[in-house]
Amino acid sequence: MPFSPRYCHPALKLFFKFYKVHSTRDSLDYAISLFQTEDPAMLLRAQKILSRVISLQDVDLASPHYGIWPKHWEESVSRIFNPDPNWADFLGSSLLLIKLKYRHHLSLALESRVDRAILHAARSIQNRNVDINYTNIAMRGTYVVLVAAEVYGISDLLQYGLKRLQQIHHSTMCQGIFTEYNSPVYQICTLDALGRLRLHIKHAQARIWTNDLYRLAWQNIAQYFHLPTHQWAGPHSRSYSNLLEPYILALIERGTRGKIKFGLPEATMVATQPDIPLPCPVDLEPYFLNAAQPTTIIHNILAELSVRRLTTYMNSSFTLGSVSYSDLWHQRCSLMAYWGTPKDPGYLKLRFLCDGDDFAPAQFFSVQHEGTILAGITFATDIDKHSPYVACQANGSLSVEDLRLRFELLGVVTALNLSKETSFLECQVEGVWVRLMMTYAQLGDLTGHWEVIYAEGKTNLDWIFCTGSRRVLNWSQISVAGMAMGVSVSTDHWSMAPIQTTLEHQRLTLSAQALRLSFQVCPDCQSTLVQTLRTSNEI
After folding, report:
1. What is the C-alpha separation between 175 and 177, in angstroms, rounded?
2. Lower Cβ count inside 10 Å, N or C end of the chain?
3. Do the beta carbons of residue 348 and residue 434 sit within 8 Å?
4. Pair (338, 421) in one structural domain
């Protein structure tokens, strides 16, 4: 299995580029598949894999990595650069499935080792006590802790798990969506964890909370599914792909008991067979059967520095979604549109690039009504350029050769108009008109311009601040760093409403018709920028 260099020490990346290694998580999944065969030779192989993976767990109570595994067989927890504590949740979950479903294939000695490994993982999860807003991991860890507590009769672990589940239930049901909002990959991870809880938990109140959350997970999937394109409408908190992966469509097919057919190849259906059933509530099935009527979905995420508003507009031709504030890390889809057909979907995605990589310190703000968005960009000084979860020294400097805002567009462009004098750009793609109006752009002494770039089958609509020669930006010496723009997606060719933009006391204010957006453009720490955001939609 190819090695993923993201998770190893930089010094090992070159080495592993040329060698195959073995994933501990995927190996357990493989072992589960082998157990399902009931073939004696395959069962023996599964037992050997299981034994090997268990042996790699850190069981030293004094270790900071207690209860977790390395990501690969060829590593050890004590010697890798950055062990991932999530592996206690993922592998603990798989071991519980083996314990509960395939224990008859285990020797007493191997079953005893599985028991100990599960308990080590559960205690590791308890010790870590991850923030419940880290939805998919909080939910999977709660599954491991609660079911382990019931299976092995551990009262303190049970009380801890019940408290966690109650907190997740209260927070999520109050806002009607998971805090790790609308994330295709992680919503499915969360649904899977809830599906396991539904199967394995016995505690009466825990079952009630679990069923509520399970239904909500399916409801979120159904609400954001755009039947005309077979895409998951944005915005997405976290996503690994701009287009919906086939395995999610396969999950919907199975969840609806075959009532919805996406025409997936048989090989895809076989390869994506889940370990547990994940049935869709029957009353939610019409979302996957009926074409979208013009509708707007709004959710407010409450457990944040400031209320985070998600707005999604869908009709039979396109979807357009945005979030009121977010960073522009590579996993974010903070402004996302879809159009086209199931066989040939297209999209528009907002990015901000520094030397070709997505730039997490770029902070996105927006307000939306149907197909129109007012948006702004400014910059946080305390965020690592690659990840919003890594802090850096505030007011540091940035060495950069190329800095640009990008609207990445997938689809065949049949018309394009660019006015450099008015900073207006519009194009037609698959029967949809996309319009961009840059009303303000200033980053220190840089102002920028539009440029259209065709690459790798995509059309990139770039606002370029600088390119070609390296320079150093010192955040503490920049008093204004911000962008203001209007974005419109429609099926009709009409002019954008005028956007009034003012800069006063290092604050940009945009207004168009009943939409209004105001935010600070002096670089600052992320929390300060978020708390100074003001939006309104009086329509």
Report:
1. 6
2. C
3. yes
4. yes
Q: Measure the N-to-C terminal CA separation of the chain; round to a whole number of Å.
A: 53
Contacts of 242 (CB under 8 A, 6+ apart): 333, 336, 347, 349, 408, 410
331 assigned to some structural domain: yes
Tokens representing 490 are 């429609």
Domain boundary among 179, 207, 228: 228
* Residue 79, domain member (yes or no): yes
Dihedral of alpha carbons 113, 115, 119, 125, sign: positive
Lookup: tokens for 46: 């599964």
Output the average pLDDT for the chain.
93
The Cα 20–Cα 91 span in angstroms is 21
CA dihedral 86→89→90→91, nearest 10 degrees, is 110
Omega into 235 within 30° of 0, i.e. cis?
yes
3-class secondary-structure state, position 505: coil
For residue range 207-221, list pLDDT tens digits in order: 999 999 999 999 999
CA pair distance 356, 175, nearest whole angstrom = 36
Query: How many Cα atoms sit within 13 Å of 328 on the Cβ side?
Result: 27
Provide the residue count of the chain. 539
Q: What are the φ and ψ backbone dihedral angles of 50, each rounded to 5 degrees? A: -60, -45
The pTM score is 0.93
**79-88, 96-105, 347-356, 374-383: lowest mean pLDDT where?**
79-88
**Is 197 in contact with 164 (CB distance < 8 Å)?**
no
| Residue 358: partners with Cβ closer than 8 Å, 6 or more residues away | 328, 329, 330, 351, 352
pLDDT tier at 226, thresholds 50, 70, 90: very high
* Tokens 């977790």 found at: 68
Tell me how far apart the alpha carbons of residues 473 and 460 are, in angstroms, rounded to a whole number: 25
Q: Whole domain around residue 221: which residue ranges?
A: 5-228
Q: How confident is the model at residue 335 (pLDDT cuts 50, 70, 90)?
A: very high
Spatial contact of 94 and 144, defined as CB atoms under 8 Å apart: no
Among 201, 228, 255, the domain-final residue is 228
Q: What is the DSSP letter of 532?
A: T
How far apart, in Å, are the Cα atoms of 355 and each of 423, 458, 470?
Answer: 23, 19, 10
Q: What percent of the chain has pLDDT over 70?
A: 95
Q: What is the count of structural domains for the chain? A: 2
Pair of tokens at residue 113: 């080792």
Of 371, 408, 346, 352, nearest to 496 (Cα)? Answer: 371
